[in-house]
Amino acid sequence: MSAFETRRDMFNLPEGITYLDGNSLGPLPKHAVDQTRRTMTDQWGEMLIMGWNKADWMALPGRLGDRIGRLIGAPVDSTVVGDTLSIKVYQAVASALELRPGRKRVLSDNGNFPTDLYMAKGLIDSLGQGHDLKVVDPEAVEDAIDESVAVVMLTHVDYRTGRLHDMAAITRKAHEAGALMIWDLAHSAGALPVDLAACNADFAVGCTYKYLNGGPGAPAFIYVRPDLIDQVRPALSGWLGHAAPFAFDLDYRPGEGISRMRVGTPPVLQMAVLDAALDAFDGVDMADIRARSIELSEQFIAEVEASCKQVELASPRDPHARGSQVSFRFEEGYAAMQALIARGVIGDFRAPDIMRFGFCPLYNTGEDVSRAAAVLSEIIASREWDQPQFKTRKAVT
Asked: Could you name the CATH architecture of 5-29+285-391?
């Protein structure tokens, strides 16, 4: 029995479903149901408001931050959980810009997740201080880093193709130019080894509902380099980032360390789910997850390309140059994905023509891969996708 077979039993995987969309939303960890029920009945139900003290709800953001920190190479007390990823992006960019007052450029690439670009553009428009957002091709990022750049903001793994940036090299280039580095780990955390401390990253953010399996709407996290945190002024000065929230001062004083990056009240029930979900990573080496992920993705590419010539690989051919997903281009990709889902193989679609498949060794198997490849080939070869019900766009693709 492989090291991951017992982990698969920790997840609720509906019978007859091959789930290759954990890069978009992880499945339900079975243990999360009981843990959330206990949080509701034994804590909220019995303790009422006393749960903030008796159940130590207030400490959840930091405790969960440290559990995630282990998976992303972050030292203890440098990561905190709360709010949404958009909020955490805003915090990171705003703080970084303040730390480089003489510079006016935020540099990103067109493989970045659009929300990150929206938040950065909205922030600099609100500041009205002459900042600009420069967006280049992913391959052009390093050459675009110069002394005009205040902040480099990138998503580590491209959400569309899975292309993987060289975190250490780009961070080093940013620092050599005097810029600060922000990494979005939405498609990295829990999927592949990340070592923020070793590469000296300044900020990192990420969501917890993908590979970390925290459930729809699970809170995001933010990391700040420990030697930098006391210089950071939180742009979103929420009451739980205050040094003494229950002193109810009218003036804001930032909390010590990473606690100053807290904003609003912790979503306790959602954090209970995330806490349970992270149990699946206990005792697991991220290098082993990465090795198995590469095996699964390589198997998928080989089997699809051997039987389905109509699709084109959109992900990097080199497995070490992509994250834990494989994307194929197909002109009718949306309809083909809907046909796949109707047959019990779940991936997702990203415009204009990309079918995405995520590989999560905690619960995906070689049998999952073979079934998905076979069903995809059947659907394409038979033109099963060419039906009206598969071409009607839904709200979520």
From this structure: Alpha-Beta Complex (3.90)
